[in-house]
Amino acid sequence: MMEHSLNAVSHRWKLNVQSMIEKCDRNHPVKSHHIQTRFQITGVVVREIVHHLREVENIPICSGAGGYFLAQSIGEAQHTIKQLRSRAKSLNRAAEGILDHYRKEEQLSLI
User: What structural domains and CATH numbers belong to the chain?
Assistant: First the structure.
């Protein structure tokens, strides 16, 4: 069974995933499923490792429908950067929607 959390994933697994992705370019990406099968980890763990590598290690890992790859230029990274920023805006709007529900509920209780 493929059960791991990022806290339980060793430094070695992070390096293995990083090494696998760094061998890939835009024309030859690696699918998450291939990484999952190779290292017996879940898709969630793959995403957590990729997030860590991007955020903490500043590795320009890009993703798309074809899979993960290492960007060779800012031009190659632009699509992923735009996608991540769009997702962040969408998540913020969702959080605001939840807050608005309670703000309206609070105002109704004052009437």
Answer: 9-110 (1.10.10.10)
